[in-house]
Known about the structure:
Number of strands: 10
Strand order of the largest sheet: 3-5-6-2-1-8
Strand content: 15-25%
Radius of gyration: 35 Å
Order of helices and strands: HHHEEEEEEEEEEHHHHH
Distance between the termini: 84 Å
Number of helices: 8
Amino acid sequence: MRAIAGLQLLAAAQAVAAQATTIKAANATATTFPEGFSINTTASNYLATQYLFNNTDRPYHKLDPPYISSSTGEVVDDGRTKIAVELIVNRIYGVEPKSSSFILDMTVTLAWIDPRLAISNPNLALEVDPGLVWTPFIYFSKLAIDTANVPNPIYEDVYIFSDGTGMVTWIRQLVLPFSSKYNLHGFPYDNQTLSVSLVLGKGDSGRLSLVLAGTDFTTDGFSSLWTLDGNQSTITDAGEALFSFSISRVPSSYITRYILPMALLCLVSCTTYFIESSAFPPRFTGMVALMLSVVTLNVVVSQELPKVRYLTTMDAFIMMTFMYVFVSLVASTVCYTLHSWKYTTASAALQAFLRVTVTLSVPFSFGLVFSMQKTWFSVTSAICVAGLLLMVLVGAAAAYSEASKLKRQQRQGHTGGKGF
Length: 420
């Protein structure tokens, strides 16, 4: 019996009953079934339902809310009827930043006190047809589909607990798509907050109020691309029940498919500094091929993201890869030009500087982009900046050493006018 799920709301529903104001005596008497009457079987459940809802001594009209007396039509509750809400998330999937939506498989349980349905038999619960009982008009906002196209619940059950208070529990399992705004600045290391709001209909909003009973997850409910960091539920000033879920993307697939290849492309572009300056055609051809590879990679990555007005961390990685390939292309041209003009010492010194500085700066550059995804300054970013400055100094030392070596050779007459 799905009443077991509703038992999780037992404490909350009893709290709702404690918070309710005094009910007039006309609706305070609980219905007692005949001695020996059981409501544990399907047949007896049907008979009990007929006995409860066809009681001529105390008529029940499902169109009237709990605070309306079925016999006199008067308002019998001086305060609001409290509706306890519990949301159990079975699964969250279809988290698509490109379409700004996600799909939530959830079990929504509502509990309230309806004194007209109070029964005092010592049984667990009476399962009734949802069409027989008054239920609050309540709906979800932020849906990604039109309200006219909302699918029917996977299942829907209503139980009346036999504790003498008239506690009614309404349980529904729903699968609904919701819209959400995604912040992709840190992609693929981004964190997102998904939220859904449960709203009371305008007709009863003045007499009904929502009370949170909690939020729970049956499983982590995610694919390997996301992890659940936490959840929060609150009642807003407008009286809505707001449920929020914090999730973070698992970046491992993006690291292996995109970021690691980009780092390798940067390192491959640095091999041009180990080739003689005079070998310009193969160096130029290789750099153009690398540039086209980066362009292709950028197109593939952009297909997975919506068009946004800001740069993401992945964009920063791609731009940095472009920069490394472009610098290699320009450096090859400059070194070849200096060599062809017989400035062999300058050509060799520049190539030595780039060989050390640019090659060793690749891990520090990627680390800097990674460390700046959440904040502009951190210990990691400071270490990366210090590493880059150190590489510049090491490269300058290498260039000075190479220039000094060539000058000594020129003085000794061993260079013969040749370049590096």
